[in-house]
Structure formats: C-alpha cells, structure tokens
C-alpha cells in the first residue's frame, strides 16, 4: 500500500470511530460535559455531530474526566 | 450567548446578512457560468461540470480572501463592521463552496474508474519534483479537511467546550489552509491557464492579505508601545471628549491591559476590552440599544455593569472612571466581572 492509501485508510478509520463515538456521545455524554446542552433539541445535536467526528479524542477525554470526577 | 444552545442565533441583522451572502454567491456563480459559456465557444468550449468546478473553486477562494481581509482592515475603518459581524456564517459559506468544488472534482475526475473516486482523484499521475506535474489535488484535499474541522466547530457549543485558547488555535489553522489553497491553485489551475490575469489576481490577493495583516500588526504594536502613564493608580483617557456618542476607544494601561471606554450620551463607562465570547475587541464596537455591542459577533453588555442583558449570563470586568477638571481619569484596578459602577460625567455639561 502506498502513502496515499495509508493516509486515506487512517482518515477513514479515524472518521468511522468518530461516527460511532458521536452517536453515543450526542445521545448520552454531551449533557454530562455541558449542562447547557442537556435540553438541546435533536437538530442542534446533529449540528455538533461533524465536529464530534473530527475531534472525538478531545471530547472522549472531556467525557471521561467528567465521569471520573462524578465517581470520586 | 450562554443560555441554551440554539441551532442558529439568528436576529434581524443576521438574517439580512445571510440573505445578502446567499444572494451574492448565487449571483457570482450565475455570472461566472454565463461569462465562461459565452467566452468559450466551440471548438474551445468547456463542459458544464468543469465550469461548475471552476465557479465553486473561484467563489471559495474569493470568499477566503474576504474573510482574511475583513479582520485586519476593520482596524482601519468602521465601514467593514457589518461584514465582520457574523463572519462565522461567511466562513461556513466558504467551506460549502469549497466542498462543492471538491465533491464535483472528485466525482468528475475520479468517478468513472474502478477505484473509489477519492483514491482515484488523489492518485492522478504526477511528480512532487515537477511544478507543472505536481499532484496539486492533495493540497486541496488537505485544505478541505482543515476547512471542514473549522466549519464543524464554528457553533458556540465548541467555543464553550474546547475553551477560547484551543478554539482560537484550531481556527488559526485557516492560515495553513490558505497557504495550501494558494499552492493548490498555483500548481493546478494556473499551470494550464495561458492568460496571466489569473496569476496576477492570485498574486494580488496574497499580497493584499499579507500587507493588510502587516499594517494591522504594526498599528497594534504602536498602540501597545505607547501606554498611558499612570499617576497613583489612575491614567488619563486621552481624546475622551472627542468621542462620538455611542462610540468606544481602547486605552492601553501601563501593564499592557486594554480597557474599552464608551460614551453613552454624556455618560462615560469603562470595561475590559476583551469580549467573553471570542475575545473580540469591545472598544472597537459601539453602543447599540443601550448596550456595548462586540463588533465580532454582536455579544452585548450593559455599559455600567459589564453584564449581558438577561437571560444571558456573560460578565466582564469593569473599571472606575472619574472627571478631574477637563480630564477623564481611568482607574487601573479592574473590578470583579459584572460589578456595577456609576458612569462618569463632565459636571453635568455635555461632553462635546
């Protein structure tokens, strides 16, 4: 596989993981990290979905630290 | 503002702005397509998909130049304030034009083979060592990815949850995207375009962006290099009496802190120059409907207390002002965000 193939595979894999994470996060996690987002309607959450796909490691880290803080 | 997230925070001004942007883009595309078809008669005609690819590409790069020029040029003139306001929508529009250009290119040039279109498009034969044969598509693809991340994180939710520093750093990537777009055009379209006018247009655009940023940077540097002199914790606000009703000015304190001073009728108030939303320069805004209004996105604050009008909850630090004879003096001590302070007046007389 050449460099372009590896690059496209990496981008595709990253986006696929992000899409799965975004579905779970926008349904259950977004209200935990941001109380103002708790009652946000579906179309607003849909607007955030591309950003969650792009930045899922950041949002995953935020969600994890909030959950850790809630447990301790 | 931080009350509850809305899909788009439209108000009358933003709706008019968006209608203008949409109308101007549609008109630009129509004129571009019309002129290209009229000037490329058989046997030199251009197929409709290629005309559309070019039209969206030119629209995207033109909008990118406008976006990059508004910020620095608005330091020199208030006339660009209407464009600066709601610049985010202009950015999303630019991304959609770039996306249309990219998607049409991928489908037209890569959609008829056995490979998937993206892969086929990016594997167009060429050499990184050659100017005329450089695989410029890769540059455009990377630029589009950057613009996607920026457009996807343009909602207020992202500013609140990424924090101003990370959000701003992310959106400064527009300069990386701009560099890639310029190279994409220079190594792509310009290589097959015999007329020099397009090269001049691109070169002129790059020069304008560079000169505007340099000039704005020098202006800021000059202002920061000559802070007002402090006397027992107070400094004089120069030119206060020449301030127009509803206008603001920026005072640079000895420590480098910037304070915005506003005149509302004969009352003068002072607050931090940094908007709580995206750190916009409040002192370059105006008082609209009794509130200091940020020139970047229209966030508003009560001039006397630095608080956003209910139900919004943003607060910024306020500063005390007092009149000494003919001089307006500013305290260097910032009060806690949202602290109400009685406005200063020139002995009951009109300030002008």
Q: How does this structure look, described?
A:
The complex is a heterodimer of chains A (72) and B (352). Chain A has 72 residues and is mainly α. Chain A has one domain. Chain A is built from three helices and no strands. Chain A has helices at 3-33, 42-54, 56-71. The longest helix of chain A has 31 residues, at 3-33. The termini of chain A are far apart. The model of chain A has no long low-confidence stretch (mean pLDDT 92). Chain B is of the alpha+beta class. Helix content of chain B is 46%, strand content 12%. Chain B has helices at 12-39, 48-73, 81-84, 87-110, 117-122, 136-152, 156-162, 164-171, 174-187, 197-225, and strands spanning 230-231, 234-236, 248-252, 258-264, 267-272, 286-288, 291-293, 300-301, 318-319, 321-324, 327-331. Chain B has a four-stranded antiparallel β-sheet, with no helix packed on it. The model of chain B has no long low-confidence stretch (mean pLDDT 88).
Alpha-beta classification of chain B: alpha+beta
Give the spatial strand order of the biggest sheet of chain B: 1-2-11-10
**Distance from first to last alpha carbon of chain B:** 35 Å
Which H/E pattern describes the elements of chain B?
A: HHHHHHHHHHEEEEEEEEEEE
Label the overall shape of chain A: flat
Reported for the largest beta sheet of chain A, the result is: none
Count helical runs of chain B. 10
- The proportion of residues forming helix of chain A, as a percent range, comes to over 70%
Shape of chain B: elongated
Record field, number of beta strands of chain A: 0
Oligomeric grouping of the chains: heterodimer
Quickly give the structural class of chain A.
Answer: mainly alpha
Terminal Cα span of chain A: 47 Å
Based on CA atoms alone, the radius of gyration of chain A comes out at: 14 Å
Can you summarize the main beta sheet of chain B? 4 strands, antiparallel
Number of helices of chain A: 3
Which parts of chain A are unreliable, with pLDDT below 50 for 5 consecutive residues or more? Answer: none
Number of domains of chain A: 1
Which chains make the largest contact? A-B, 23 and 24 residues
């Amino acid at each position: 596989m050449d460099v372009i193939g590896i690059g496209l595979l990496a981008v595709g894999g990253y986006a696929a993981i992000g899409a799965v994470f975004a579905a779970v996060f926008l349904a259950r996690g977004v209200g935990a990290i941001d109380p103002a987002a708790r009652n946000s309607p579906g179309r607003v959450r849909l607007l955030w979905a591309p950003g969650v796909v792009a930045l899922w490691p950041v949002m995953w880290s935020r969600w994890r630290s909030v959950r850790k803080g809630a447990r301790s | 503002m931080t009350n509850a997230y809305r899909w788009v925070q439209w108000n009358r001004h933003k709706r008019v702005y968006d209608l203008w942007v949409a109308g101007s883009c549609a008109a630009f595309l129509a004129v571009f397509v019309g002129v290209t078809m009229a000037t490329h008669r058989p046997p030199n005609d251009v197929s409709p998909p290629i005309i559309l690819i070019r039209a969206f590409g030119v629209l995207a790069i033109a909008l990118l130049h406008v976006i990059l020029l508004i910020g620095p040029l608005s330091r020199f003139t208030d006339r660009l304030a209407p464009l600066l306001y709601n610049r985010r929508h202009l950015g999303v529009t630019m991304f959609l034009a770039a996306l249309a250009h990219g998607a049409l290119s991928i489908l037209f040039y890569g959609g008829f083979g056995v490979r998937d279109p993206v892969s086929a498009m990016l594997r167009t034969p060429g050499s990184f060592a050659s100017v005329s044969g450089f695989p410029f598509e890769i540059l455009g693809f990377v630029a589009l990815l950057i613009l996607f991340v920026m457009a996807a994180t343009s909602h207020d939710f992202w500013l609140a949850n990424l924090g101003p520093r990370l959000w701003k750093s992310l959106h400064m990537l527009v300069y990386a995207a701009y560099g890639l777009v310029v190279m994409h055009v220079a190594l792509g379209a310009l290589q097959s375009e015999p007329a020099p006018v397009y090269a001049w247009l691109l070169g002129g655009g790059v020069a304008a962006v560079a000169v505007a940023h340099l000039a704005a940077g020098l202006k800021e540097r000059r202002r920061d290099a000559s802070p007002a002199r402090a006397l027992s914790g107070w400094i004089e606000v120069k030119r206060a009496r020449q301030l127009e009703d509803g206008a603001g000015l920026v005072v640079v304190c000895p420590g480098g802190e910037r304070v915005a001073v506003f005149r509302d009728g004969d009352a003068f108030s002072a607050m931090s120059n940094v908007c709580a939303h995206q750190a916009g320069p409040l002192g370059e805004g105006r008082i609209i409907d009794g509130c200091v209004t940020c020139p970047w996105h229209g966030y508003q604050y009560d001039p006397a207390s630095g608080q956003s009008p209910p139900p919004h909850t943003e607060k910024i630090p306020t500063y005390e002002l007092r009149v000494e004879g003919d001089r307006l003096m500013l305290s260097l001590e910032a009060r806690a965000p949202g602290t109400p302070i009685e406005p200063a007046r020139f002995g009951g007389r009109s300030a002008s």
